[in-house]
Structure formats: C-alpha cells, structure tokens
Amino acid sequence: MSVHANRDGFATKLGVLTATLGSAVGLGNIWKFPYMAGENGGAAFLFIYLAATIVVGLPVMISEIMMGRHARANAITTWKKVAPNNSLWMLVGVCGVLAAFAIMSFYADVVGWIFSYIFQALSGSLSSTDPAVAKAAFNATVSSPITAIAWQWGVLALVSVIILGGVSKGIEKTTKTLMPILLVMLVIVCIRSLTLPKAMDGLAFLFNPDFSKVTGEVVLMAMGLAFFKLSIGMGTMMTYGSYFRSDANMPLTATRVMLADLTISLLAGIAIFPAVFNYGFEPAAGPGLLFMTIPAVFSSMPFGQIFMTAFFVLTAIATIGAMLSLFEVPVAFMIEGGLGWSRAKSTIVTALLLGGFGIPATLSFSTMSDVTLFGLNFFDFYDYLSSNLLMPIGGFFICIFAGWKWGKERMQESLSNNGTLNNTMIISAYAFIVKWVTPLLVLTVLLKGLNVF
Ligand code: TRP
Question: Cys staple from 447: which of 20, 261, 373, 452, with CB 3.0 to 4.6 Å?
C-alpha cells in the first residue's frame, strides 16, 4: 500500500475528464473522422459509428479504466495484479507498450508537420489559393530529412517537458488549460465556415444520410476508427484509469468522453467542409485534406491567414493531449514496472527511444522511401502494426478478461464505487455486451486487418 499512498493521480473530477478526452481527441477527429463520414454515407456513417462506439468502443474503454483503477498500476503491472496466477495475460500489456511506441513513432512525425505548418501559415508562405503551391509546400515539409526530424524531435521534447511535470501537475493541468482553448478556437472557425454563402453544400456532404454507401467494409472501418479515436486496446486508458479518483464514475466518464469526442469530430467537419465546398475545392482524404486542401481553402477567404493559423494551432493542441497519453504508457511502466526509475529518467529514455524509432518513419518520405518491411514503408508499417494488429489483439483480450475472468460481482463493485453509485442497469448491460458482443466484433476487425477475408 505504501507505494500507492503517494502515487500521483488526477486531482479533480474535471481533470479526469479533460485528460481522458484529451487522449481521445487528436488527428482522428480532425482529418480522419470528417472525411470518412463524408465519403461513406454522411449521417448514415455517423449512425454506424455511434453504434460501433456503443458496442465496441465504450465496453473496451470501461474495461480498461476499471482494471487500471482497480490495480492502480501501469499497463503491464495491472495485468500482474488482476491475473496473478497466469502470467500470459501480461503479454497483453507488453503488446500495449509496444503499440504505444509504434503509434508515437508515426504520430509525432505528423504532429511535427503540423507545428511546422503553424509557422508556415504565420509567415504567409501558405497563403495561396493554388493547390499546386500547397502541394509543393507539403512536399517540402515532409521530404527534407533534417527539418522533418528536427520538428519531430521538437514535438517529443515539448511532450517530454509536460510529462516530466507528472500526472496532476503535468498532464492534468495542461489538458485542463488546453481543452477549453481548443473548443473555443474550433467554434470560431466553425462560425466563419458556416457563414460563407455556400456553406450548405458542405453540410450536405457531411450530414446527408446515404445508406446505400454502408457496406460491411464501412462497418469494419467504423469499428477500427472507434478504436483509434477512443485510444483503446493498448493500455492508454488502463494507465489513465489508474489515475482516476476513487469517486469517479467510470461508465459515465467514458460515455461523456465518447460523446464529447464525437462532438469535436463533428465540429471539425463543420469547420472544414462548408469552406471546402464554398470555394469549389474537392474534399480530399488523409494528408491531402489537412495539408493541401485546407491551406488553399483558408487562403480563399478574407482574413484567411488568421483562420488558417488558428486551425493549425487547434490541431496541434488536439494532438498534444493524445501524445501525452501515449507517452505516459511506457513512462508509467518504467517508473513502476520493476525498473524503479525516476520519472525524469523514464521520460528521457522514452523520448530517446521514440526519437530513434521515429527516424525511419520520418524518412519514409525522403531517403528511406524505398526501404520496406512486409511491403510497407516504416511510416505505414507502424500504422498497420498498431491499428490493424496490436490494438485489436489488445482489445480482444481485454474484453475476454473483463467479460469472462473479472466476474460480474467485481464488476458491480468497481463500477458502482462499492455501491455508492446507482447504476446497476448500466453495469448489467456492459457486462453482457463485453462478454458476448464486443469480443466477436473485435475479432472480425482483427481478421479483416490480417486480410483473412
Ligand atoms: N485518439 C487519438 C486520435 O484520435 C490517438 C491516440 C491517442 C491513440 N492515444 C492513443 C490511439 C492510444 C490509439 C491508442 O488521434
């Protein structure tokens, strides 16, 4: 007990919410979700995504938080504590820590581009309505090895400094300050976009329900997105759960995070598409949308440079909270998992490892573009490894453990805070879904990721 008595954690209920939401909100909201929704049936996709978060996302998230808070330990030690008799379960935690490294290695690269874009937007070099100029700017940003690595390392250094501050004084304080700023900036850009003459075309792209576009593939995509969006399947939520206050309502917090995260994704779509359509641009996918279409779109509007800069600043803010949660996974393990390192040492070692692993991802766009693993360049390999393999595998075993090993009684006990919360019905629904529904769905996503069908 003595170790836990002075273990750092989130000090306030608001902090529990902002930190967890900060983890969920990231690149997924700003460039993945809006585009996927627009392409795959608009409101019909929203509907599928909502269903996916309820039957896949939330159960895994609640399970992770529940186990982490129970064990009050990092993503690996938690398994040791909840499954003391079978050390194989610990492998799930090991996969999680590996996944954190894999995700961070390409995520920090993209975040580096975003930070570089803030300064390019400020300097005016992105102020052109010609997509060719935007394309050249993007190519220059990603293909200069030294500059791209410098930005990536700068981002890692910034995140390290916050992580060094600890859980309550670093992560919690930062997300409490940044999340409201993100929301205000996003709403301002939304208002600008919505007041453009042809804003309705963009809203139609995002919201017109088209159920004919919903195929089995789209459903699987929505489930995969729910995983990435809610930062589940690799121990992030377990680690954060271990910092939850004992009086925090876990199912309610998870639901609020899911709904707030969805709201932010929709606001991102509302900020982007009305402007895109108003100025006659094509909605693009992936990097093209964020780094080529958006600069050209904002350059088309009055005071566009200000809105463009604001947009990249708010994207950067969104990614910081996500990176903090990824970074904390290995750091928490190094501090407690038998190594007994200080937070400072763990942070520095994690940053150095990420700096190293990140290099081949960054160089995938320049000197190492021909170097492949299993037919993928390093950037895509890290993405594939984490999103298609490690996260669904982790999610599957988390559900199996929570649903089949943890037991209904312990579930009731933890999720109701020893009977102080009146949520028996919700717990019963969760217990059923996590046992019978979620594992099957996650398995389908996993088999699909392995190209089994
Ligand atoms: N949820 C974040 C996003 O949407 C990404 C992220 C942060 C993440 N932590 C994670 C994804 C852990 C998977 C696992 O951008």
Answer: 452
